[in-house]
Amino acid sequence: MEDILRPIYQERASNRNTLGILIMEKNCRISPETDNFDSILLVVVRSADEKWVVKHYEFGEKSAALHVIDQELLNEWMDTSTFRRAVEWIIEGRIIYDRNEYLANLKETLRVFPFEKRKLRLSIEFSKLTRSYSEAKHLYDSSNYLDAYSRLLRTLHYLGRIAIIQKGYHPEVLVWSQVKRIDPEVYKLYEELVRSKEEAKKRVELMLMAIELSVNKRLDICAEHLIEVMNTQEAPWGFGELKVHPETDPYKYDLVSMLEYLVSKDKVEVVLEDTKSEKIKHRKYKVKTD
Fold first, then answer.
1. Phi-psi region for residue 30, left (φ > 0), alpha (ψ -120 to 50) or beta?
2. In degrees, to the nearest 5, what angle opens at C-alpha 10 toward C-alphas 8 and 15?
3. Distance between CA 152 and CA 142 in Å, rounded?
4. Which fold has domain 115-287?
5. Spatial contact of 155 and 136, defined as CB atoms under 8 Å apart
6. Global pTM value
7. What is the side-by-side strand order in the sheet with 237-238?
8. CB 162 within 8 A of CB 126
9. For the segment 189-206, what is each residue's pLDDT rounded down to a tens digit?
């Protein structure tokens, strides 16, 4: 396969801006990891005018996709899991060209998964979890049990990803096969939800409680990134200030649900400040100290 694809990538390998090229090959009939293409060619470049270029090819009964990705965009994907497949390509792909061991070092960084990067990823998944969990509770309270069940499945997915990241691994596309190996306790919650013989209402009710217990055990580490940001100033934070802070940008859309969850768990306290109206107070936030 590589010999057939060589004309596609050979010219790019001679370009000074090319940092590395790797290939990821399909190994199953249905392959979500490669978007069902027989091969994925990933070319990492620096200083590209177009940050992400994709081209599709076909030869005989085979197909291939070429992804040319700017280095900065790839780093963003790695830090925030915006495009998980790219991370999987780097981890599982085979290097066919590497300038100054760029891709080899990238693979090693992903293998080690430094704790600072893990903190950000945990906060991203936690912010999504808190929103999904809040929606599930609302659906349960409004007697929409099947919708609540569906939302709980999504909540468990985020919890599964958190469990994987906690152990120092990157979540793959097939999350639950990873969770089964890495965190049997969280996997058991998933099994209980999907295999329970209870009626939907009871199943959702029990799972809401079980998920909250599991989340509470991980609360400190999941909130650590946001807490550190909030501790960079002594004055209480307006929500708008926190939302535009560059460190919270990767989870700004779910920041409000994360913040409210931390308030409900006494990790963050609400500080009311005067406004021009005597009846209206400005709601601000600060980390709660013992």
1. beta
2. 115
3. 15
4. Four Helix Bundle (Hemerythrin (Met), subunit A) (1.20.120)
5. yes
6. 0.86
7. 237-238, 281-287, 268-274
8. yes
9. 999 998 888 899 999 999
